[in-house]
Amino acid sequence: MNYWGLIIKNPFRNKTRSALAIVGIAIGIATIVALGLVTSGLEASTETTLKAGASEITVSQTGSSNFDTSGSIDENRISDIEKLKGVNQTAGILRASADVSDGSNMAPGGGFFVNGIDPSQLSLMGIESINGSKFENGSYELILGKTAAENLNKSVGDTITIFGKEFTISGIFESGNIIQDGGAFVSLNVLQNITSNENKITYIAVKVDNNANVTRVSEEIADAYPNELSTTTAADQAGKINDAMGYIDTATWAISLLAIIIGGVGVVNTMIMSVYERTREIGVLKAVGWRSRRILGMILGEAIVLTLVAGIAGTIVGVVGVNVLLAFSSSFGSVIEPVYSTELFVRAFGIAFLVGIIGGIYPAYRASKLAPTEALRYE
Amino acid sequence: MNNETNKDSRKILIDIKNLKKSYENGQIKALNGLDLEIQRGEFVSIIGPSGSGKSTLLNMIGALDVADEGSINVAGIDLLNTKDLSKFRSEEVGFVFQLHNLIPNLSVLENVQIPMLETSLSSKEMEERACKLLKSVDLEDKINQKPTKLSGGERQRVAIARALVNHPSIILADEPTGSLDSKTGDIILDLLKDIHQKENVTLVMVTHEPYVAQMADRTITVRDGKIQEDTMKSN
Ligand SMILES: Nc1ncnc2c1ncn2[C@@H]1O[C@H](COP(=O)(O)OP(=O)(O)O)[C@@H](O)[C@H]1O
Ligand SMILES: [Mg+2]
């Protein structure tokens, strides 16, 4: 037998009480792990938006909203902008919101976006690999995002009716962008035609020259068409997304703090009861020559054992819980891929450890300060 | 300083002068100016009515409590002027209480090893020493049992093994047979006496039964926190 063995054994003397304390802390840890997995999953799926071949600048009508679905920019601007210094390639995109003919409205946000584009410029959208083939210019073909394909239960070769026209699915793509993967791309002139947006586009995607400064090019475009066109860079958007992630992160930390406080109170309570019940025993330990520090260490260690067990249980529940939820939620399941980072697990166990120390220190101190004779007289 | 006194002071193991201890803000005078000398190797019994201060005296000798006044020297250590007494308790004394006070979730073998956790022995050495001691108290077949499975006499034998495990110079026993029937009690007393003789350990035992007290070489009667009588066995 050794000291450590004793510390591991002792918390399980009163199984019910320890189990209750463990459950309380494990719930907190599970929440932290689950939130962490989901946020890092979201972060990963938005980071892919900033892909190598994709456009860096989005040019839209001044005053239009992010998800505008009308054609408000003149098509000629595509080539106008391409001539500007530092611009490498441009693509005009018409965005429309469509209901699928069976009446279902499938994309996560509630809109099924159909984007018209010249098929040769799909790489600007971050679409590089297509399962099947691109659509032909001017044809009634489309490529469907992976999420949309799963939600609509469609595969290559199937047909789909939008805006009253039947389209054949020529390919399925995965760009990693949540919004895009929930929608479809068709030939620009076909979409302009069937939505009566001839010669109009919603926005222009711009790819800059290799050595050009994205911010400067972006400003130059906006300056060239004052009161008409506005620009945002992919980096700006990533920044906005990061801000949102920041809020979720703050929330996670707030929940962590709550878990520390609630869990800490639970541990204090459990350990005080345990010390109280073992008063005589602690008196004996002092009588046989244990130093106060050893008694302090034992009780503190027991508290940490409790919270580390809760850390393990909470981590398992969090990981399993997120996977089960994603498996049963068709819209999020295909978008969010939980990311297992060491940092998250270090954080979960760090918090468990901290709760053990915070919750254990006072009971441990009390135990170490017990007067041996008082303790031995205790009934 | 001559050789004579030097030799003498080395024989005195416990040296108590005018020791006072009160509880409840001085309301209860548990020890009221007590003087006592005990030589190394003696077997002393302490007798007296309930509440006379016997346990308090024993706890003072074992450094479980601190006196208010006077002086107490045990094994050359001035207990009133030593900060950390745990080393003293670990090395010099072994306690046997009226109640065995064993830890219920640990086996007999583990209970006996508890005091050795303060030493630098390896876990193998600890186990060997505990086994040997349990054998000497006739419990070698019970080493892996939990104390709850043992009889009162067996538990007290485990407690004796635990008290001996760090080779103390003094065994302090506070009514060790108080919760046992007389037959089992006699076995425990014989065992303690046996240990005292074989190991040459100083044995101080509190009891309130005269027939138990007279087993010792010397009987001290305590009353109202003072020594009332101090008699050596005549034969
Ligand atoms: N920790 C304590 N707190 C308060 N009173 C105590 C304490 N210890 C002993 N006493 C009191 O001191 C007196 C002597 O007690 P004790 O030494 O236990 O007597 P004995 O062992 O001879 O029966 C008693 O009146 C007892 O109630
Ligand atoms: Mg007593």
Give a written overview of the molecule.
The complex is a heterodimer of chains A (379) and B (235). Chain A is an alpha+beta fold and 379 residues long. Chain A has two domains: 3-49 and 240-377, no CATH class; 63-226, no CATH class. Chain A contains 13 helices and twelve strands. In chain A, the strands form two sheets. In chain A, strands 1, 3, 4, 5, 6, 7, 8, 9, 11 and 12 form a ten-stranded mixed beta sheet that branches. A two-stranded antiparallel sheet of chain A has the order 2-10. In chain A, a hairpin with a 2-residue loop joins β7 and β8 (165-173). In chain A, α2 (15-47) packs antiparallel against α8, α2 (15-47) crosses α10 and α8 packs across α10 (292-328). Chain B has 235 residues and is an alpha/beta fold. Chain B has one domain (42-62, 86-232): P-loop containing nucleotide triphosphate hydrolases (Rossmann fold, 3-Layer(aba) Sandwich). Chain B is 34% helix and 27% strand. Chain B has eight helices and ten strands. Chain B has helices at 3-11, 54-61, 86-92, 108-113, 123-136, 152-164, 182-199, 210-213; strands at residues 12-23, 28-39, 43-47, 69-74, 77-78, 93-96, 170-174, 202-206, 218-223, 226-232. In chain B, the strands form two sheets. A six-stranded mixed beta sheet of chain B has the order 6-7-8-3-9-10, with helices on both faces. Chain B has a four-stranded antiparallel beta sheet with strand order 2-1-4-5. In chain B, a hairpin with a 2-residue loop joins β9 and β10 (226-232). The radius of gyration of chain B is 18 Å and the shape is globular. Chain B starts with a helix and ends with a strand. Bound molecules: adenosine-5'-diphosphate and magnesium ion. Magnesium ion binds at residues 54-55, 174 of chain B.
